[in-house]
Amino acid sequence: MSSAIESSSPSVEIHNRQGSGPAVILCEHASHHIPEQYHDLGLKPAHRCSHAAWDPGARAVAVTLSAMLDSPLVASRISRLVYDCNRPPEAESAMPERVEVIDVPGNHQLTAEERSARVEAVYRPVLRRRDSGDRRVRRAVPRRC
After folding, report:
1. What pLDDT digit, counting tens, does each position of 80-116 carry?
2. Lowest CB count within 10 Å: 3, 56, 85, 87, which one?
3. Sheet of 5-8, strands arranged across
C-alpha cells in the first residue's frame, strides 16, 4: 500500500498505481506551480500562492486517501490558472482571464494555438494518466456523494 510517487511527468503525478481499492482519486488542483514558459502568468507572488491558483491541502488529503483506500491517485502538478483540469478544452474557464478578484494577464487574448498547446501540455497528460491501466475509470458510473 505505497503512497510514493510511482509515475510522473512534468504535469501529472500518480501515487499507488497498483492500488486495488474501490476508487480512482483525482486531485486536479494539487499544485500552484506555474512553469517558466508562462512567465508567472503576470501574477503577483501572493496571487500565485493563493486559493485562486490551487486548493491548499488538497494534495495531502488525496495522498492520505490513496493510502487509506489503497486506490490510485492522479494529481496535477500545474496550477489551475495555467489550465483547470476540471474543465474541457472548449470552456473559457479552463484558462481563465479572471478568477475571484484576481486578474490573470497571462491568460488574456490567448490564441487558438496557445490554448491548444496548454491542452496538450497539461490537460491531456492528466486524462491519459487517469485512464491508463485502470479499467475502473472507463467502466465507472459517476456517483455523487
Report:
1. 999 999 999 999 999 999 998 999 999 999 999 999 9
2. 56
3. 5-8, 12-15, 73-76, 25-27
